[in-house]
Amino acid sequence: MIPFFKIDPEIEQHSELVLEKCRDVFSEIDKVAEYNQLKVQKAFIDNGISESHFVSSTGYGYGDRGRDTLDKVWAQVFCAEDALVRHNFVSGTHTLSTALFGVLRPGDNMLCVTGTPYDTIHGVIGITGQGMGSLWDFGINYSEVSLKDGKPDIDGIYDAVNSDTTMVYIQRSRGYSLRPSLTVDDIEEIVETAKKKNPDVIVMVDNCYGEFVEKREPIEVGADLIAGSMIKNAGGGIARTGGYIAGRADLIEKCAYRLTTPGLGKEVGASLGTNRELYMGLFYAPHTVCEALKSAVYISSLFSSFGYDTTPKYNEKRGDIVQCLGLENEESLVAFCQGIQSGSPIDSYLTPEPWDMPGYDSKVVMAAGAFTLGSSIELSADAPIREPYYAWIQGGLNFPSAKICALLAAQHMKDIGKLKGV
User: What pTM was computed for the model?
Assistant: First the structure.
């Protein structure tokens, strides 16, 4: 019997069978986590991290050795020449935007090779043709290669890249789509294809949700630039805000000039006491990602046992921490999210309801009880209220807490007569 929570014995029985089924997958996840933990630990040791690196700076932040050394640690971990890690990146989208505006110039050509990117980046690019300071407004051209059967169209990418292509842009995670996330092997194939046509092309990867899922990172297979958010995988559930960019040193310098100002770049920017949590977040990240992956695998297997469609399947190779769950109708979808919310450590008393969320063409229901507002490494579930009624689930600071949330979601669905298979 599960202590503290009332779960139907039949649901518990499904859970026990699922845990046994997932044992080998969990073991492989643990191996990757150990490898990445040692990689991070070695970078801390090589760079001589000490208490002095946690000291706060104010004002211009000149000579902030904690900030500057953090960049070196990140560069080593991600096998990059340099990195730009800052608490004042306000989101993943802001971080990606800084990288794009830092590297691209009027007249340049950006080619997205993973279909249309995630919704929040549309305004940055200017996909709709609207100005308002977008790349389009600055005369940067955009085009894309559609996915083929949900996967990158390698032949299409080869045909689209030419001598005028300045940047090939890759979105690693699935976003609000059902296409598979990209593994590092997938990214390697894209990089080789693009650089075969144009050796000088800049390959940039939106690495959000993908950090530490595998032993290799995109820089190791030829990507020139990666970027992500610190309130997703990279911050380990400890960083309260921030983002990172890593890659070629010349490109990082351009990004730093965009973040602050030309001529000053990385030399300025007070850390304001955030260094400790950014270091600690990175240190915890491999373990936290491990817990999030186990949570995703468990949810996939559990709800598959009830008869629901899941993508990826519990034993498929993963490129990110996101799990999709097909719940078939609005009532089941909303009940699932409400069950997740009821087990959250924060705001468990709230009941998520669909609402007209700005920027979306249908109502959205969101479950998120997080210590850090908007954190996607903490367990959350959200979904647009439209066919085919899939929920997108990500995160889990530790597996036991995510597991009980999943069981409570199943229980809530059963209570209203919407859970299949029991």
Answer: 0.96
